[in-house]
What does this fold into?
Amino acid sequence: MSLKYDFTGKVALITGSSSGIGAATAQLFSKSGANVVVTGRNADAVAKVAKQCTDVSPKQLTALEVVGDLTNEEDCNRLIETTVQTFGKIDILVNNAGAGFLSSIDDTDYMEKFSLIMKTNLNSMVYMTHKCVPYLAKTRGNVINISSIAAKKYFYILSAYCTSKAGVDMFTKCMAAELGPKHHIRVNAILPGYVETNFTNSYELPKEIIDQSIVEMGAKYPVGRIGQSQDIANTVAYLASDTAAGFLTGTCLIADGGDIAANV
Ligand code: NDP
It folds into this structure.
């Protein structure tokens, strides 16, 4: 179920919106009246989500499609420039794109995987924020960074991922402190628990194992289920709303169905 927000007249750029949490977030902003930018590397997935956004938009606002790789600075620049050329401004930046690969510190390719994860999850977020600040300053906008409970606790052979997300949390706090007084920009992070998306595809585990883990984790979570993309999209919309969350900045909001509290 999605909540009712009014983002009429706002422009929301959501990275990693071709799938999962980002796609649900783009659809929720679109449904709430915003102009949205849908982006990812997979052109078919970008086009599919963009159409879904346009379909749910009350005024049938056309979602902007930008295909690109965020580990490439030229693609990031093109994403921002196309957004501003099309919609004239940026009000909300959701740094959501992310990846995680299983890798042990003594694997021969550990450093390649570490580097790719840091580039995807942290460097791209830093670069996008750096480049969007002039636009967000004009709109007194806000930034929402998608972190993970992996920033707070150990996960088996996910050290690179955990490290990248801990960086996301610290970056969020620093940006909130710096950009609030200077430009009236709020910056917050969300730390989701286990959410059912395509994210675990990269683990290359058999589908039965993934399905089994969904059931087992859901049973352990205090809320009795694992998360859905809509749960996190609702949290993004809450933080993006100046009416609902105008006093929140520098917050690393845990949205994990009770994972950390119950020590799952
Ligand atoms: P998905 O795999 O469904 O979505 C990931 C998105 O990121 C896709 O749209 C993908 O687009 C995009 N992406 C990945 N790498 C790049 C890149 N180099 N350039 C551009 N886009 C890229 O996973 P989720 O929706 O689950 O993940 C979204 C965020 O939520 C991530 O930051 C993840 O770390 C975080 N998260 C997820 C949890 C979960 O349990 N699912 C738990 C905690 C946090 P494309 O493939 O088209 O390039």
In short: The pocket of NDP is lined by residues 16-22, 40-42, 45, 69-71, 96-99, 120, 146, 148, 192, 194-195, 197-199 (CB under 6 Å). Residues 51 and 63 are 7 Å apart (CA to CA).
